[in-house]
Known about the structure:
ARM-like; mainly alpha; ARM-type_fold
Amino acid sequence: ILGLKQAREEDKQEAIKLLQIIASGGRKYKELICESYAIELIKKLLEYEIRSDLLKRLAGLLNLCKDPRNRPKILEDQSAPNLLESAPMFIQQAAAAKVIGILIQNSVDISEELMQHELVRKLLITMGNRNHFDSQRQASLALHYIVCTNPNVAEQVKTSMGIELFEMFMNDPENLYQKITEVHADALFNNKANLLLKTEESEVSPEAEQDGTSAKD
């Protein structure tokens, strides 16, 4: 249905809802959808009217319902059920981070649009999720690409992380999760990256933008 050019937007939206229901059935169903070229499908959907809503929901999947900083004590019987309940949410988070990483490398426009949904802040929070290593890894890789292509974001990420963590992040984003401590996770969870970015943008007046100078100058 999603691949049919003659299909109505309403039909496409219902098809997406059905895919979400299937995906909620468990990991094997999510893997089945991914094996069916889900990422390519998302790229195609971005050509339709649902693009804005799709990107907003994709960024929203990075959000967690609870504080992800503390690593679960899986050796204690009481914590095991909570870990199992959180697993589907963490899997969705990791998948969203992976898809975002792919999309932003293929399109500057998509990257900029996702940035409007506090993408940097959410990726930093996801990097602090010590409950799920794949979420941390995928978020780190996606953010690393953004940092390497956007100097303005790089400075704010550095401020949010601190020099030590930022240097480790730039040197080895894929394996950074192995070095993130509880202190690092706390800093990532409470980051103000998007607030810093908005503050810096507000300091540039329309007149200054035309001259290529900041309001402070």
